[in-house]
Amino acid sequence: MRKSAAAAVVALALVSTGCTSMKIDDFQGTQPELTLEDYFEGRTTAWGLFEDRFGDVRRQFVVDIDGDWNPQTGVLVLTEDFRYSDGETDQRVWTIRKTGPDTYEGTAPDVVGTAQGTLAGNAFHWTYTMNLKVGDGTWRVGFDDWMFLQPGGVLLNRATVTKWGIEIGSVSIAFRKDDAANSAAVTAPRSAAE
Q: How many CB atoms lie within 10 A of CB 147?
């Protein structure tokens, strides 16, 4: 009995880790080009949902985001106000520092250590560990976060959530600038003929 239970756990872990061969360099030169501080400066709204590993939607939410970029310090502060479909509200404040032309690191009160991110073309890859509120407790989970800027200014976000290296679910989010006309980051790509 113990052997079959252990085998089932190992099999579940192998199936659920959701390994991907996708790398940030795969997106070099893709358009429209994403610049994190340009996109998130000012007001942004996002709509998202959390799916468990079986594909069942467990939670839906809307996020109002205020971004403040300081080019002198290279710091972007994002204040995220969450409104969940069950009536709960929450706030997360990210402090994101630009560490190179295409690299970033970030901290937030519920993030363990430092998040690491890299840009290439229209994509941003962001990984971090978070103490996530679940019911009356907290789970330490990992996020493997991918964002892709689309023509027209929509930023699509897909994150895999893991616990002990096993995928427990995913988060899907669509961001939209509240004033897309004023953001250079949301310009649709032009063809070579234009």
A: 21
pTM: 0.81
Q: Using alpha carbons, list the distances in angstroms from residue 135 to 22, 132, 165.
A: 33, 10, 21
Tokens for 80? 């995220």
CB 35 within 8 A of CB 186: no
According to DSSP, the residues that pair with 94 across neighbouring strands are 78
Complete domains list, the chain, with CATH: 24-186 (2.40.128.20)
Ordered DSSP codes for 92-119: EEEEEEE-SSSEEEEE-TTEEEEEEEEE
Report the alpha-carbon distance of residue 38 to residue 82 in Å, rounded: 22
Q: Which residues, 6+ apart, have CB-to-CB distance to 185 below 8 Å?
A: 32, 33, 34, 35, 38, 39, 149, 153, 177
Q: 126-159 pLDDT, tens per residue?
A: 999 999 888 788 999 999 999 999 999 999 999 9
- C-alpha distances (whole Å) from 191 to each of 43, 96, 122, 188, 194 are 29, 33, 16, 10, 6
State how far the Cα of 57 lies from the Cα of 62, in Å rounded to an integer.
15
